[in-house]
Amino acid sequence: MDGDLSTDTQPFGEFVKYWLYQVHLVDKKPSTKESYDNKFRKYIEHSPVSNVQLKKLTPKKIQDWYNDLFKSGVSTSVINGVNKIVRPAIRFAAETARIPNDFSKIIKIPEDRTIIKTPTPTVRPLTIKEQTAFEIAIKDDDYEMLYLTAMYTGLRPGELSALIWEDIDFKGKTIRVNKAYKVSKDIDLNKYIGVTGPPKTKNANRLVPIPDGILTKLKQYQINQKEKFLKYGVAVEGDFLVFSNSIGTYLDRQNMNKRIKKIYESCGIKNKRFYDLRHTYATRLFELGEAPKTVQMLMGHADISETLNTYTTVLEKQKVLSSKKLDKFYKGQIKGQNKMDKNKKPSERA
User: pLDDT tens across 320-338, in order?
Assistant: First the structure.
């Protein structure tokens, strides 16, 4: 490593800044850069260890800093996020001989084990009754097809925004999910930009089946869209966005959220978000008895544990229903056995 960039007297904060922006984040997505940049500026740049020279940096100084953060009310999860920057930076310092050894592994993240907090549920699917009311409320809405597609395919908002007509196989009745659209801050340009890139996880690249009813509506929606934009001299080709604004560009996520909130309110549905349409899809699948592995694949989750952890409440309800079904089966078996016993001759009974 160039000696001008780092010496043993270099402040730790300055070294972390170099590693973060010139090494770690060089090839990362804007959204990832924004997340790391926020953590660095809020927790590391002006921290007690920021001005400590590398040659004077010790495990105790880092540990004391983490402990002070925790005592001041910073959560364990946030400190873990900070550590995802600090730990590899320390490792990089050791690998480039700026410090004698990598001591990052011995740093302990403080955790309050005396208080068990009940997590706020993040999954708020529509009940069947709410779903019925919602579908009535969105009838003939400009974004009716967007909402229905979200609710009956489980695509993420960013995946829906990036969807083009080439991604829809009408003959095969599937949607090919291979990209997502997201607006995030570009820390190099210091402004927010929209970027279409790979979806959230490797498994998010997937084929999702389209129910026949939704497929029929999508075909008609495409015809209507072509007629609408033809008036403005715009041809709807295969690379045209399936769900766009009035000028054929990407939908604004904030406007989408505001719009759907008003629809929810109009039909008495409380505490729901656009994203909950995706959760509604997964919940209906579980209620219909679909296997968790299949749901994982359809949702594009990274692994089965994400699916099981996300839909714990739904799965618990299904366990109770399964128990009731088994109990009903058991009672039927006993009833059948008793009936058989009654039909037996006295000499045949045990």
Answer: 766 676 777 777 766 666 6
